[in-house]
Amino acid sequence: xxxxxxxALKVSWMAVLILLLAMFGRExxxxxxxxx
Amino acid sequence: xxxxxxxxxxxxxxxxxxxxxxxxxxxxxLPALRGSLRQFAFIAINLAFxxxxxxxxxxxxxxxxxxxxxYGLACAAAGQRRDRLVPALVxxxxxxxxxxxxxxxxxxxxxxxxxxxxxxxxxSFLFFKVVHVIVDxxxxxLGPLELMTYLNYSLNFATFAMGPIQRFQxxxxxWEGIEPALPDRFEPHLDAVVRILLGMxxxxxxxxxxxxxxxxxxxxxxxxxxxxxxxxxxxxWIYLFLNFSGYCDVVIGIGSLFGVRPPENFNKPxxxxxxxxxxxxxxxxxTLWLTDYVFTPAYRKSLSTPWLAxxxxxxxxxxxxxxxxxxxxxxxxxxxxxxxxxxxxxxFVVYRTWDQLLQRRLGKQAVRHLREHWLxxxxxxxxxxxxxxxxxxxxxxxxxxxxxxxxxxxxx
Lengths: 36, 412
Prior knowledge:
The complex is a heterodimer of chains A (36) and B (412).
Chain A: H1 3-24
Chain B: H1 17-29, H2 35-54, H3 57-77, H4 82-100, H5 103-108, H6 123-139, H7 147-155, H8 157-160, H9 168-175, H10 186-211, H11 226-258, H12 275-281, H13 284-303, H14 306-310, H15 312-331, H16 335-362, H17 364-372, H18 374-396, H19 399-411
Helix pairs in contact in B: 1-2, 1-11, 2-3, 2-7, 3-4, 3-6, 3-7, 4-6, 7-9, 10-11, 11-18, 13-15, 15-16, 16-17, 16-18
C-alpha cells in the first residue's frame, strides 16, 4: 500500500479509537500490575 | 499477622489533566530545545509529575534523595571498587525495604520505625534503575555518568510509575540523539499517536469490561465453583494484560514522541509455550533486569562451589528459584507475592528438569522436533496460559483471604 492511503487508514483508525474512548471509556482506580 | 495489607494498585490516571498536560509539554517543548536547557526543562517536567500528579511534595523529596543517593553510590563504586559495591548495594536494598514497609519487617519493628508520610509509588522501579546504574558503574560498562542525565533517566515521568525498566545506556544514546527514538518522518510519529490511543482504549475501555468478571482481592475462593473459579482467573489474567500492556503502549508512544522510547515490555504473552518464554513475553524489561542482576550472578556464584559445579542443573534451578522469589517480593510487599514468586520458581524448576530429562532420554534433535509439532505447541500454550492464570491468584487475593481459605481447606 502506498503512503497516502496508509496514512488515511491510520487517521481513520485514530478516529475510531477516540470514539471508543469517548463512548465507552471508564474511569479506573489505577494500575494493578505492581503493588506499589 | 501483618498490620497493614495494602491493595496492589498504582493510582495514576493517564487521562488526568495533570498527566496529559505534562505529556503535551514534553512532546512539543523538549524536541525544540537543545543542551542544558533541554535537560532543565525535562527535570522540571519530571519534578512537576512527582510533586503534583503522582506523589506530593514530601514523598517527591524522598524519591529525589533516593535517586541522588544512588548517584553518589554509583560514583563511589566506579572503577571496580568491590569494597564499596557491596556496602552500596546493602544500603540501597535496606533503604528500599524500609521505605516499602515490607510485611516481614513490620513483624520485627514497631510502627513508629516506619516513615508513615511517604508514598512510595514508583520506588520499586526507581530501585531497579539505581541498582543497575551502581552495578554497571562498578563494572565499567556504564560510561560517563553525568548528574542531570542520570536524574532525568531515573525520574523520567513516562516510565517512573510502572516502567518499562530502561537501561541507562539506552536512555542516554536516545537522549543524545545517537540512536534517535523515531525516524525523522511523519508516519512513525503518527504510529506513536495511534499507539497511545490504542493503549488508552486497552486501559479505559477493554480492561474495565474484563475486570467486572475478574477475581477481586476479597473474593472468597471457597464460594466459587470450578467454572466460576476458572472464569475469574482467566478474566483477571486478561484484565491484567490489558491494564499493564495498555499503560506500556501509552508511555512508549509518549516517550517516542519526546525523544526517549522506552523498551518494549510485552510480546503476546498469551502465546507463550512455556514458563521461560512467558517471562520473555510478559514484563520483558523486568525479566531481562532479573536475568542480569540476580540470576546470572547467583548462577556464577553457585558454580564457584565445586559440588554445584558438578550438578549444573541443580545450580540453575537454585538460581531460578532465588530469581523468582526476588521477583515475587519485588512485585509486592505482602506474603501473597512471596507465594507468587515461589509458585513461579517451582514451575521453572519443574520445566527445566523435565526438559533436561527429555533431552537425556530422547536426544536434543528429537526434543527439538517434538517442540515444533503443532500438538506440542498447542499443549504448551494451553498449559502455560492456565498455569499463569492460576498463579495470578496469589497476585490478586490478599494474604488474609488466602490464609482463611487455606485454614478452611485444612479443617475440611
